[in-house]
Structures are given as C-alpha cells and as structure tokens.
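Progress report, Aim 2. The chain analyzed during this reporting quarter is listed below.
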Amino acid sequence: MGADGLVPFAVLFPLQNAVRSRRICYRVSVADLGSDFPPFFLPCLRVPLMSRSLFLLGSLLVAPVCFGLGDTTSPLNAGEVDPAQEKWIEKYKGQKNAPDPAEMLVNTEAEPDLSEGFVPLFNGSDLEGWRPIGGECKFEAVDDQVIGTCVPGSPSTYLSSERTDYQDFVFTCEMKWDEDGNSGVMFRAKLRTNGDKETVYGPQAEMEGFSQDRGWSGGIYGQSCGGYFYPLWLKEHAEARKALKKGEWNRLTIVAKGNDFKTWVNGVPAAHWKDDGTYATGYFGLQIHSGNSGKVRWRNVQVKEL
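Predicted structure tokens for the chain:
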C-alpha cells in the first residue's frame, strides 16, 4: 500500500497484447514498477481505448489499476452483491433479464438540473392525453395531482400517455403513498395485443413502496418481458435503497439517451442500464399494481425532450 492509502498495481503488456481493466488509477510510481526503473516520474501518454485507459511507455503499454478511482468519462462497472440482498438474489437470479453483477454499470452522476425546459404531461384538471391499459384500477385528476387507486381483483393497470414516440428525454415526477402498494413509471413502453387484450411491456422505473425490505425503488424492471433489467442488489446501491421516504413526496428522475438509461430517487443515483436497442421509442405509463390495496399520488409529472 502506498503512502496515500491506495493499492496500485502496474501491469506491463507488449503493445500488441489486449488489456482488460475496469477501475483505473492515473498515477504510476517507481515503487510500483520495481527497483530497475530510475527514480523519476514517468512521462506517459494516456491512450483511451473504449472504457479502458492505457499509458504508452516506450514499446510497452502500462495499465495501472487501482480500486477506488475511475475514468469518469466512461461507465463504471461494479460487481459485488450485497450480502443483505441474498434472499432477493436467490429469488430473481433465474429471471430472463437478470444481469451478471460483474457487468452491471453504476450510476455515479449527479441528478440533472430540473429547473428549466420541462413540459407538464398533465393539464392539472383531467386526464386528457392519457388512457388506462391492462386493468380496472382507478385514476383521477384532483388538485393538480393524479391519484391511482388499487381495485382488488384487477390486474395491474397503467395510465398511459397517448403519445407513443418519446425517445431521448429527462422525465421527472413526485410520488406519495396514501396506502402502501407497488407502483412505478413505465418509459419507452410498448403495447402487445392479443384480440381485445392489451398488455403493457417494457422498462419500468420501479417505485415499490414500503412493504418489502429490499429497497429497489429506482431499479429498472422489465414489465411483462423477462423481469429485472437492473435490480439494486449491489453494495454500491446501499444509499439508493434507503432513498425512498415514507409519508413524504418522493422525486423520481429518469434520463434516456439512445440505449442508455439512468435513474435517481430523491436525488440519489440509482440505476444505470443499457439496452440492446429494443426500446428505442415508446410511451410513459403510471402503474398501480394488482393487489388488495394501494393508493398513490403523482404530481409535477414533466418531461424535457433532448
């Protein structure tokens, strides 16, 4: 360990060799390279290669790797599951979409500025421009809010935007639970029809309420298409799992750019997921999950298209 508390490793490769490294330290000391190197700082040329950072030193590539520092211009991979999440890992690891923890990206960005450029998605007086799909749970507009109420026996119901071509955007809303119940916000959602039956499917920013102890609000669920794309089960998600506040308004923010998606809950970074291009455009949907009870309020539902 160095005097600065870091544990760097200098790994030398012939120039033609492939290099794999994830978290990069940008400092090389002579102690890392051994006593055969003269005691001066090494002149280096940093060469970016996709999400990796390499240094050109003569005919060698130096890839100094250090846990703790990263190339902030590139996606940051994580990889270590939280032991407190073991029972949920066992439950969901067999789902079609279940990610390899070592390949999951981590959202380290600050929540985007929400002060300018946004357009309200509700007119404040009724549900014009929206329609419920999938079930009989009730939605109503009251005092500049949308209130969704679970109807026992009904399938999950999605108050869905009639516009279906949203592409790149920053979406934000606030949610509050009068009665606990699972909920969420569909984005770039799709519609599957089978006769008269309509099924909403696609990515959903999970806002699961408070009845479970897993804390995955802000994760990304693949509704009716294979389960969780991005569960919050890593050690790096500990703060996000505590972000939802009972009895208070909770802000959800979603950013979609190309096939890259990020979420925040009350300003805390949560998910960072990339899809394969399947969900390039789509609509928004406010979910009331099936169950015996649940009542959720939304306000300040807005979008800024990019």
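The first strand starts at residue 9 and ends at 14. Residues 1-73 have pLDDT under 50 and may be disordered. These observations will guide the mutagenesis work planned for the next reporting period.
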